[in-house]
Amino acid sequence: MVIVMEQKATEAQIEVVIGHLVRLGFDVHRSTGSERTVLGAVGSGHVDDPGVLAVLEGVHEVVRISEPYKLASRAFKPGGTVVALGEVRIGGDEVIVIAGPCSAETEEQVFQTAAAVKRAGAKILRGGAFKPRSSPYSFQGLGEKGLQMLRSAANEQNLKLVSEVMDVAQIELVDRYADMLQVGARNMQNFSLLRELGKTRKPILLKRGISATIEEWLLSAEYILGGGNPDVVLCERGIRTFENYTRNTLDLCAIPVVKKLSHLPIIVDPSHGTGRRDKVAPMARAAVAAGADGLIIEVHTDPDRALSDGAQSLIPSQFDQLMAELRIIAPAIGRGICVEPVARRGWAV
Ligand code: PEP
Ligand code: MN
Predict the structure, then answer these.
(1) Which DSSP letter does residue 244 get?
(2) 3-state secondary structure of 164
(3) Residue 128 Cβ contacting ligand 1 at under 6 Å
(4) Among the bound ligands, the one closest to the CA of 235
(5) Residue 89: beta bridge partners?
(6) In the chain, what are the domains?
(7) Ligand 1 contact, 118 CB (< 6 A)
């Protein structure tokens, strides 16, 4: 942190600022130029709100030069993190596709969808059993029954499973069935949930909050990492802006930004990001081209009758088509992507 003093700052004012910085644990490097004094605060000091320094008499400006998150920062692990769900590795050379219904509804729907996404090359099944719905009158999910269906379908297809946990009280149950626990957009700043998830050993899929900045998102990841769980995958799922043609505004620029700021893998959710089935494939293609480590896509065998998010769910043939397109795009940027895992195992690179 650098504190730039006003030109007319007095020696006494400078001494007061230095005193504050020392009390906060910083080493202070003073540079007195011909016009003004600049104080460099380094070392292990910490200030929650740099505003407390900015309002001191004689201070012109406080400039933060290091990020407020540490464990999530790229500097902490320059080589990048690979999050492993068994043999499925997110953040490595391969682009990982997660697909499945928004919610588990019936055995038939879950099993048919799991078979379809597996055939097309997905590695992880998605599906909610606890649903964060805007209205309390909307379908809330099947709870444990839904988790049982999802787990059996994932086992049958040799897929990993990710499912959402909305509350601290649900962690133990969801952890029993899923290979990865999803924190939904609405819970990105549920700090007590994040802290508890820091104690689990399962990878966490941390979705970006509806109105969260990238810095806030990385600070949320910091809660989980700080709790002792190193396996966090970030998910850009669109943010709320003044644009209302699409359900959210999918911020694909977050991909290169996060890649620079953090070592954590980042995947993209073009389903919630657009809210419209016809916009999912173009944004999925763009996300892979922009360097996403994976995608999470809603697929439903009968989306017009889906109990949640039907409008943004692909039918299996559309998902097949998208996977075929991704198999062209991924190698073009030096990434692998699964090639028809059932029929022909191998990687296109
Ligand atoms: C979901 O994945 O179905 C979901 C509710 O996502 P989000 O938290 O991004 O809205
Ligand atoms: Mn959904």
Answers:
(1) -
(2) strand
(3) yes
(4) 1
(5) 84
(6) 2-63 (3.30.70.1140), 83-347 (3.20.20.70)
(7) no
* Per-residue pLDDT reduced to its tens digit, 71-96: 999 989 999 999 999 999 999 999 99
Token pair belonging to 295: 């995608």
**Nearest protein CA to atom 1 of ligand 1, as residue:** 102
| Tokens of residue 111, six digits | 């099993």
Tens of pLDDT, residue by residue over 261-282, are: 999 999 999 999 999 999 999 9
Span from the CA of 120 to the centroid of ligand 1 (angstroms): 22
Nearest to 263 by CA among 75, 39, 53: 75
Tell which one of 103, 164, 188, 210 to mutate to probe ligand 1, the residue whose CB is within 8 A of the most ligand atoms. Answer: 164
Calculate the CA 154 to chain-centre distance: 23
According to DSSP, the β-strands at 2-5 and 83-85 are unpaired
Q: Is 123 in the pocket of ligand 1 (CB under 6 A)?
A: no
- Output the six-digit token pair for 316: 């299996």
Between CA 23 and CA 77, with CA 45 as vertex, the angle to 5 degrees is 175
185-194, long-range: CB within 8 Å, 24+ apart, which pairs?
185/209, 185/210, 185/237, 185/272, 186/132, 186/210, 187/132, 188/212, 188/216, 188/217, 188/220, 189/216, 189/220, 191/220, 191/223, 192/168, 193/165, 193/166, 193/167, 193/168, 194/220, 194/223, 194/224, 194/227
Closest Cα partner for 262 from 91, 7, 119?
91
